[in-house]
Amino acid sequence: MLVLSARQCPRCVLRFGSSSELEQHLRLDHRPAVPQSESEPSMSSAKSDAAPAETDTGTSTESTVAANRRHVDEAIIVAALIVFIAVVSWHVAAFVSVGMVAAVAVHASYRSAGRNGVDPEA
Predict the structure, then answer these.
(1) What is the pLDDT of residue 36?
(2) CATH code at position 10
């Protein structure tokens, strides 16, 4: 009998099938808090680089917004095409169905006329 053991994360409700998955989860998702004294030197170097990053961020934000708008426009066009194709195919199916019903009705009238001794061509 095969018994699967799950390893429960001690900090959350997630469970993992292997120890390596649990260790990776703890490393990536539950990072230890960095003391303030260690983070200050990196913050000062980040402040010196902040001015060019803000202008780049503003430009990249505008391009991201433009890209998102383009994607929304493309999605709307695709949705409209799908609706159009659905409507057209529904109409085609309706016309084919009506045509089949008419063909069956004509065929039935020819068969019944032939049984009654009437020439269907006359």
Answers:
(1) 59
(2) 3.30.160
Alpha helices in 3-49, H assignment, sequence order:
19-29, 36-48
4, 18 Cβ separation under 8 angstroms? no
CA distance 3 to 17: 12
State the greatest distance between any 2 C-alpha atoms of the chain, in Å, as a whole number.
108
Average pLDDT over residues 74-80: 93
| DSSP for residue 86 | H
Q: Give the span between the Cα atoms of 114 and 17, in whole angstroms.
A: 76
Those residues with Cβ within 8 angstroms of residue 83's Cβ, 6 or more apart along the chain or in another chain: none
> What is the mean predicted confidence (pLDDT) over 16-32?
86
In a domain, 17, yes or no: yes
Residue 95: inside a domain, yes or no?
yes
Residue 77 identity: I
pTM over 0.85: no
